[in-house]
Write a structure and sequence with these properties.
This protein has 12 helices and 10 strands. By secondary structure, it is α+β, with helices and mostly antiparallel strands. The chain has a 5-stranded antiparallel sheet. A 3-stranded antiparallel sheet has the order 6-8-9, covered by helices on one side. The chain has a two-stranded antiparallel sheet with strand order 7-10.
């Protein structure tokens, strides 16, 4: 299957960009939950949506990335090669020059003990989020939909009850019900100014330069859009309380987002399990549901 995909994706790229010589290709099977990731010539990243609904998401991602160039200090993907007017899975893609660095996985982060390095990383990440969340909505277009609404979370909760509750322990079902219903029945949590947020600000999308001990870039804006900035705050809070406390120096406004961030963080595993059920991804389902069965 990988060989077939390599050939198919290479043909799609050559069809759209016949002047781009393809000397080598590597399919990163483990890198994307929603997209296949192809490395061309060891220096260009191409992402191909795996599912039909991912096509529109890729179009939106390309639009956002092109609009925010120059507003962000850290390097982010700059779509150089795109085929977003296509409608067929396997023909739709975006490509950008590779940003140096490797994902800041939890095990990599936990191995960092130097105080100066930790302070530098916190400042870089907090600075990135503050810059991103401060970009005026008009820069990316006021026609973008607003995400993270109570209606969206109510729909997700209904899907969890329908598709995941049958697999969950009684006490786990009770916890999930309380977690979602507390949010849905707390109107003050729904009052905030929507801003541009990354939407998937996990460690796998934060690139780390080991040599310089610094963040070298932020990738995968597939879930980026207008919504609740607390969603990004929830993601970085998983790096630990002591590290997260360092963010306040650069981005003190996060203090007002903590309640919402706590709710979002509590949905991660269930969201992964739900993805596994809906897309028949057994690995995602087993990983997400593990602590609830």
């Amino acid at each position: 299957m990988s060989v077939d995909k390599l050939a198919s994706y290479s043909q799609a790229i050559s069809k759209a960009y016949p002047d781009l010589p393809i000397q080598s290709t590597t399919l990163l099977n483990k890198e994307g939950q929603y997209n296949d990731v192809l490395v061309v010539n060891d220096n260009v990243i191409f992402r191909f949506p795996r599912y039909a609904e991912g096509v529109e998401a890729l179009r939106r991602e390309v639009h956002i990335l092109r609009r925010i160039q120059g507003y962000i200090t850290l390097p982010v993907p700059n779509p150089t090669f795109t085929a977003v007017d296509e409608k067929t899975i396997g023909q739709v893609f975006m490509g950008y020059r590779m940003i140096p660095g490797a994902p800041l996985w939890q095990e990599t982060f936990r191995a960092i003990q130097d105080e100066q390095t930790l302070q530098r990383l916190a400042g870089q990440l907090a600075g990135f989020l503050k810059e991103l969340h401060s970009i005026p909505a008009g820069v990316v277009g006021t026609d973008l939909p607003v995400n993270d609404t109570p209606a969206e979370w109510a729909k997700l909760y209904a899907e969890i009850r329908s598709l995941l509750f049958p697999f969950m322990r009684p006490d786990a079902r009770e916890w999930a019900s309380h977690h979602f219903e507390t949010y849905l029945n707390s109107p003050h949590w729904h009052v905030y100014q929507p801003s541009l947020r990354h939407g998937d600000f996990g460690t796998g999308n934060i690139l780390y330069d080991r040599e310089n001990q610094a963040i070298s870039g932020i990738i995968d804006f597939g879930f980026a859009g207008l919504g609740d900035p607390a969603l990004d705050i929830a993601a970085v809070s998983t790096l630990g309380e002591s590290f997260f406390a360092r963010f306040y120096e650069t981005y003190p406004e996060i203090g007002s987002m903590l309640e919402r961030a706590h709710f979002y963080r509590g949905t991660y595993a269930l969201y992964e399990a739900l993805h596994g059920v809906k897309y028949r991804d057994s690995e995602a389902f087993e990983s997400g549901i593990a602590s609830y069965i």
